Amino acid sequence: MFLTIPNLLGTPSVGLTFTDVSEAAGIFEYNISWASAWGDYDRDGYIDIMTVGHLGGICQLWHNNGDGTFTDVTAAAGMLTDDGDAHGPCWADLDNDGKLDLYVAKGTLKEDKPINYNDLWRNNGDGTFTDIGDASGVTGIGCFNRGANAVDYDNDGDLDLFLPSFFKHESGGPNLLYRNDGDFQFIDVATEAGIGREGIDNWAAAWNDYDLDGLIDFFITTGPDNGVTSSSALYRNRGDGTFEDVTSAAGLNIPSGYSNSAAWGDFNNDGYPDLYVMLDSAGILYRNDGDESFTDITAESGAINTSRGLAASWGDYDNNGYLDLYVVNGTTAPNRLFRNNGNGTFSDVAASVGVTAKEGGGGSDGTFIDYNNDGFLDLFVCNGAFDAGPYLLFKNDGNRNHWLEIKLIGRASNRDGVGARITLSAGSQTQYRQYIGQHGLAQDHIPVHFGLRGATTVDSIVIEWPGGIRQKLNHIAANQSIAVSER
After folding, report:
1. pLDDT tens digits for 406-458?
2. Whole-angstrom distance, CA of residue 12 vs CA of residue 320
């Protein structure tokens, strides 16, 4: 049964619903899990998934069989290990060889507990992986690492690793910024970059070029206040290897205490990425005003969440050309799907379309992905933040709107195209994305998705690669996935 949603965009549109296909897909697993990450590790055209277990949970690699089902291939891939304090999985091609590697942030304070060392799984290209974390110098010993992000902060053509470090019980190290020096060799430069933030409950980072100067910036969130300084902050990339705290100057007045994670997305298609921040008992939507400042528009937008949100993901699930927002709550409160009405306001339609996703455990992560390549964004949710709960996969049942998906292949820039800015024009709409793949504590490597409403042709696509190359494509047919290589 389809739900009819009032159309505020002036073109024909049909509402849609989601169907819970978790059990049929074969990943209805109960686990204590904080996050998942999606990426096509075997390059067969279908995105696979890594789910991570936390303190008694298990980490699992699920292969997408291309027929709507998944198979647990953890053992076959050589990744079956005793796992400890796992939180942040991140897919990234760290050596630019065209094969996705996997980093898993865990964190330990003791050298005698390798169960909690961070993992760097090098993709061998034959369906197997080898953990080279120790040899690469990225085990994170001395830090309680939480989130994990792969970004090219210095625009040198390879992906670096940023790991927020959580300070608790009066112990824990600083954040880690592992600069990629090539051939899987990294060096921590967080302190000299000015973002070590030692003694702070750092939790998750969300990266984006908020001021459009060609340098990737980030917003960092903080965990519970354990008697130490807790301070979320926006850091601007100076372009010389260092960052500056511009939180106050940008008008981001974040309350102290929990700010579990954040997500960037240009919800109003004005070309400037906006920011949604999840606090312990509220969510805040900050509109980017385009002058390096932000305005809290939560109340007027209707994107109101009064529960403990742990993760959020932006995506155009109904293909109407406007980004929608999915918020995962870590309490018994239902998750929220804020449908973008196209006029600066949102409506929570989670219950009516079937994605409140509260089935045991506590919600910890959620992400929009197109697992079946049909052009409509599906949802994957982890429910294991505090107690064991199920993974839930919701298939998008679709509507009549059109779409386009873009796979980026960097050449001079990093192979994943992380940091590339895409401007797409179709019909009367122009949309903007900066490709990162980050959500909650994790990072996906998936195609960039655009909804096109009724447009059957994309008039133009402009890609601004991190290395500075500007590339334009014209007259692209809708309803397909295309691969674009940097010229």
Report:
1. 999 999 999 999 999 999 999 999 999 999 999 999 999 999 999 999 999 99
2. 10
The strand pairing partners of 402, in sequence order, are: 453
- Rounded CA-CA distance 218/45 in Å is 31
**Phi/psi at 28 (5° precision):** -85, 65
Token readout for 181 is 């020096």
- Specify the DSSP class assigned to residue 451: E
Pairwise CA distance, residues 139 & 444, whole Å: 21
CA distance 85 to 440: 16
Q: Is 32 helix (H, G, I), strand (E, B) or coil?
A: coil
* Two structure tokens written together for 421: 């800015």
- Please state the separation of Cα 29 from the chain's center in Å: 22
User: φ and ψ at 464, to 5 degrees?
Assistant: -105, 105
Strands 480-485 and 402-409 turn out to be parallel
Closest C-alpha among 288, 285, 269 to residue 422: 269
Q: List the one residue out of 452, 481, 339, 371 whose CA is nearest residue 16.
A: 339
What 8-state DSSP symbol labels residue 350? H
pLDDT number for residue 225: 56
d(C-alpha 265, C-alpha 271), whole Å: 10
Q: What's the pLDDT tens digit per position in 2-46?
A: 233 333 343 334 469 999 999 999 998 889 899 999 999 999 999
| Helix, strand or coil, per DSSP, at residue 84 | coil
pLDDT tens digits along 308-343: 999 999 999 999 999 999 999 998 899 999 999 999
CB atoms within 10 A of CB 241: 14
Angstrom CA distances, 435 to 33, 131, 315, stand at 25, 27, 12
| Local structure of 298: helix, strand or coil | helix
Q: What is the structure's pLDDT at 14?
A: 45
Instruction: Give Dmax (Cα) for the chain.
Output: 62
E strand spans, 229-308: 233-237, 243-245, 259-265, 274-279, 283-288, 294-296
CA distances 75 to 31, 91, 99, 231, Å, are 17, 19, 19, 40
Report the run of H or E that residue 23 belongs to, with start and end. Answer: helix 22-25
Q: Rounded distance, CA 54 to CA 361, Å? A: 13
Considering only CA atoms, which of 43, 38, 25 is closest in space to residue 377?
38
User: For the ranges 165-179, 321-335, 377-391, which has the lowest average pLDDT?
Assistant: 165-179
Rounded to an integer, what distance in angstroms lies between the CA atom of residue 67 and that of residue 479? 20
Strand order in the sheet with 346-348: 309-315, 324-329, 336-340, 346-348
